[in-house]
Write a structure and sequence with these properties.
By secondary structure, the protein is mostly helical. The protein contains twelve helices and two strands. The chain is globular, with a radius of gyration of 20 Å.
Length: 283
C-alpha cells in the first residue's frame, strides 16, 4: 500500500514536470518568434499578452467582465495602438483621459463598484500593459535585437542563479512572509550571476552590438540593477496573490499558471532595461 502510494506520487511529480517542461518549451518558441520578428508582430503580440494579463488581474478584483474592465481593456488597446501608430500628442492626455473615463463609469454606476476596483482598473493598465510594452520599445532601439534579450536574462537568469545560490548557502530570509524560500544570499547570487551572464553575452555579441569593454561593463551594471528589480516584481505579484487569497493568476500556461505568474518579474525588468539602455548605451 505504502509502495503504491509512493509510486503514485512519483508518477504525479513526473507528470507535473513534463507539463511544465512542454509548456515552457512552447512559451520559449513563441517568445523567440515574436521578438526575433519584431515590428508590428511583436507590438500586437504584446498587446494580446497584456490584455490577457489584464484580464487575469481584473479577475482577482472581480471586475474582469464589468464596465470598468472593458474600459481597462480599451485603454490597453489604445495605448498599444498609439505606441505603434502615434496619434495621441502627449502621454499625459492618455493617462488623464483614461482616469476620467474610469471615474465617470464609477460615478454613473454608483454603487455598483468599489473604489478599490476603480484603482485596480487604473493601475492595472500601467502595471501590465505599459510596463510590458517596454519589451517592444527595447526591441526598437538601435541595437534592440540584442539588448532585448537582456530583459529575460535579468528576470529568468537572475531567478535561476538566485535559486542555485540560495539552495547552496542561503541562510538569511529576505521576505519570509511573502516567499520563505528566498534568501539574501540567493538574491546577491542572482544579481552577481546576472551581471556575469551579461558579460558573457556582451562578449559573445561584441561585434554585432559594436560594444567596447566599457560598454559591456555598463550593460552588466544595467542588468545587475534589472536583476534586483526583477525580485521586486516577483514579490509584488506574490503579495497581491496573498492579499487576495489566490494561488495563481490563471491556468493559461499549464504547470506555470497565468501570464502574470510567468511574466511577473519581466514586467518590472523591461522598463529598467529599456530606459537604462536607451540613455546609457543607445543615447
Amino acid at each position: 500500500m505504502h509502495r503504491a502510494l509512493e509510486d503514485s506520487e512519483h508518477k504525479g511529480g513526473c507528470n507535473v514536470f513534463r507539463t511544465r517542461l512542454l509548456s515552457g518549451i512552447v512559451l520559449v518558441i513563441a517568445a523567440l518568434a515574436l521578438i526575433i520578428t519584431g515590428g508590428q508582430v511583436l507590438l500586437f503580440g504584446l498587446m494580446a499578452v497584456s490584455i490577457i494579463g489584464l484580464y487575469e488581474l481584473y479577475r482577482v478584483f472581480h471586475m474582469e467582465r464589468s464596465l470598468l474592465g472593458m474600459i481597462g481593456y480599451a485603454g490597453a488597446f489604445v495605448y498599444y495602438l498609439d505606441l505603434g501608430f502615434p496619434f495621441i500628442p502627449d502621454f499625459e492626455i492618455f493617462a488623464l483621459g483614461f482616469l476620467i473615463l474610469l471615474m465617470g463609469a464609477y460615478v454613473l454606476s454608483f454603487p455598483d463598484y468599489r473604489v478599490e476596483q476603480v484603482f485596480a482598473g487604473f493601475i492595472g493598465v500601467f502595471y501590465v500593459a505599459v510596463m510590458l510594452s517596454c519589451v517592444y520599445q527595447t526591441r526598437m532601439l538601435a541595437a534592440g535585437r540584442y539588448i532585448v534579450w537582456l530583459i529575460f536574462l535579468c528576470s529568468w537568469g537572475c531567478d535561476t542563479c538566485a535559486y542555485c545560490v540560495g539552495v547552496l548557502i542561503g541562510k538569511h530570509k529576505m521576505a519570509p512572509k511573502l516567499s520563505p524560500k528566498k534568501s539574501i544570499e540567493g538574491a546577491a547570487g542572482g544579481i552577481a550571476g546576472t551581471a556575469l551572464l551579461t558579460i558573457l553575452y556582451g562578449t559573445a555579441f561584441r561585434e554585432q552590438m559594436h560594444l567596447t569593454t566599457a560598454s559591456i561593463l555598463i550593460l552588466a551594471g544595467i542588468t545587475a540593477a534589472g536583476g534586483g528589480i526583477s525580485m521586486v516584481g516577483d514579490l509584488a505579484a506574490s503579495a497581491i496573490k496573498r492579499n487576495c487569497n489566490i494561488k495563481d493568476y490563471g491556468t493559461l500556461i499549464p504547470g506555470h499558471g497565468g501570464i502574470l505568474d510567468r511574466f511577473d518579474s519581466v514586467i518590472f525588468t523591461a522598463p529598467i532595461i529599456y530606459y537604462l539602455a536607451r540613455f546609457l548605451i543607445s543615447g
